[in-house]
Each structure stands twice: as structure tokens, then as C-alpha cells.
């Protein structure tokens, strides 16, 4: 991102999604949306504000074609996926950044998997500020 008031050459590793484009453009234009937006402006982060952990919904579709689909949640550390076939996937991106081994069936990750499943269920139907709320996800049990 570049523009007036943004430091040149700065690189941040904050997760962002298309949902953040409209709030960012409105913020840059000092404009206000006439509807509630689900994303957040990236300008404060680009200007040096601390990043806030978040979860972003990932999905394929359309679900009406009869073809397999999935919906999931991506956080800075975790990727959780629910497939239309009933299969689950859970990756600890800290220890497995290439998503080679799903730990969804490992009992040490039960609390993590459940927290991500619950968060995904809330995000699938949220709107506005509800979508921007964050609750930490527990890590695996030792």
C-alpha cells in the first residue's frame, strides 16, 4: 500500500483480506460508509500501529453445484477447515507452515479445534463489529 502519510518501503506481516479494502479506502478518503462494514481499515497498521490478531474466513464454493467445498478459518497460527465431505483439517502453522500434517484428530489439539470451530460458526453469520471481535485460540495441551 502506498500513499500520503504512509511510510515508504515499510513491510508488515498482518493478515488482511479483500473485506478490508472498502474500510481502508473509506479511511484514506476520510469518508464514512452508509452501511456497516465487516472488514477493518489497514491504514493504522500501515502507519505503524500494533497489529491485532484476527481470524479470516476462507471458503470455496459455490455450495449449490454439488461439487465438494470447504469453509475454514485462518489465524496467524492456525488453519482450520471443514469440508463438505465431513472431513476436518487443522494445521499448526507455527510448527507446520506448509500444512503437511493435519492434527485435527490429535487429542492434544481438542481445545484448539473446538475453539476454532466455535469461532468459525460465529463468523459465518456475523456482521459489523461482531466480525472484528477476537478471542484468543488455545494452543495444544502438553
Give the arrangement of secondary structure elements.
Blueprint: H1 21-28, H2 43-46, E1 56-59, E2 70-74, E3 78-83, E4 88-92, H3 110-123, H4 129-132
Antiparallel strand pairs: 1-2, 2-3, 3-4
Folded structure, characterized:
The protein is α+β, with helices and mostly antiparallel strands. The chain has 2 domains: 12-52, no CATH class; 56-132, Arylsulfatase, C-terminal domain, CATH 3.30.1120.10. The model has no long low-confidence stretch (mean pLDDT 85). It contains 4 helices and 4 strands; from the N terminus they run ααββββαα. The chain has a 4-stranded antiparallel β-sheet with strand order 1-2-3-4, with helices on one face.
Count up the helices: 4
The CATH architecture assignment of the largest domain turns out to be 2-Layer Sandwich
According to DSSP, the number of beta strands is 4
Strand content: 5-15%
Oligomer: single chain
* pLDDT averaged over residues: 85
Report Rg. Answer: 17 Å
Question: CATH topology of the largest domain, anyone?
Answer: Arylsulfatase, C-terminal domain
| Helix content range | 10-25%
Work out the count of structural domains: 2
Query: Could you name the CATH class of the largest domain?
Result: Alpha Beta
- The helix/strand series, from N terminus to C terminus, equals HHEEEEHH
Low-confidence stretches: none
Largest sheet: 4 strands, antiparallel
Read across the widest sheet, the strand sequence of neighbours is 1-2-3-4
Kindly report how far apart the N and C termini lie: 41 Å
CA-based shape: globular
Secondary structural class: alpha+beta
Amino acid at each position: 500500500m502506498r500513499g500520503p502519510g504512509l511510510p515508504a518501503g515499510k513491510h508488515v506481516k498482518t493478515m488482511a483480506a479483500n473485506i478490508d479494502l472498502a474500510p481502508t479506502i473509506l479511511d484514506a478518503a476520510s469518508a464514512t460508509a452508509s452501511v456497516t462494514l465487516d472488514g477493518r481499515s489497514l491504514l493504522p497498521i500501515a502507519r505503524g500501529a500494533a497489529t491485532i490478531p484476527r481470524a479470516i474466513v476462507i471458503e470455496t464454493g459455490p455450495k449449490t453445484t454439488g461439487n465438494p467445498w470447504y469453509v475454514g478459518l485462518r489465524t496467524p497460527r492456525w488453519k482450520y477447515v471443514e469440508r463438505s465431505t465431513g472431513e476436518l483439517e487443522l494445521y499448526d502453522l507455527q510448527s507446520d507452515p506448509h500444512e503437511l500434517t493435519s492434527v485435527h484428530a490429535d487429542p492434544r489439539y481438542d481445545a484448539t479445534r473446538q475453539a476454532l470451530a466455535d469461532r468459525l460458526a460465529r463468523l459465518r453469520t456475523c456482521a459489523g463489529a461482531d466480525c472484528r471481535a477476537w478471542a484468543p485460540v488455545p494452543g495444544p495441551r502438553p
